[in-house]
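Case study B.
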Amino acid sequence: GQNIDQPTEMTATEGAIVQINCTYQTSGFNGLFWYQQHAGEAPTFLSYNVLDGLEEKGRFSSFLSRSKGYSYLLLKELQMKDSASYLCAVMDSNYQLIWGAGTKLIIKP
Amino acid sequence: ETGVTQTPRHLVMGMTNKKSLKCEQHLGHNAMYWYKQSAKKPLELMFVYSLEERVENNSVPSRFSPECPNSSHLFLHLHTLQPEDSALYLCASSQDPSSGGNEQYFGPGTRLTVT
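Model:
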């Protein structure tokens, strides 16, 4: 079966760095996406990785290792507004997204 | 309007009612999706329409019936639902997913409660 695993909840301090991990087992691979979802709102796109390595976009970076079935989202200089759920999703061989349950990130002052 | 819109935002219905959810995208995309989001569970893909043809329905119960009259509009018709169908229903759109790397844009969702 297809499976995406990520931690249920993480806590970090304002101004710090946090890494949210995602491991996956899917039927084929056509890229990995990270989305942010604030409570009561729609998910919004953060990043896309299809090749191994690190993609940096401002305070957010995403890493992919296809051989390990592993990705992480790195958030730097955390701000209170970063409190949200972070969803990892993998596009399978049918070009459909398989989603993780999301990691709820709590930022403390 | 821009982006992806959904109506209604909230819906309470009895198990014998019939209702419809509406989604509209203003992004020029050619694929649209219905997802179900329940608390602490992964997003569940219900239906995909690409170029107005249904691509996958993932064994969704027949009490959910999608309709895609054109590339900008998507409906989800609901009838004789069960309490366990209470969830957030999200609509999304994207460019052709088979071309790879195309992120999905989500609407704000309809919070459905079945009583």
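Chain B touches chain A through 20 residues (CB under 8 Å). The remaining cases will be described in the next quarterly update.
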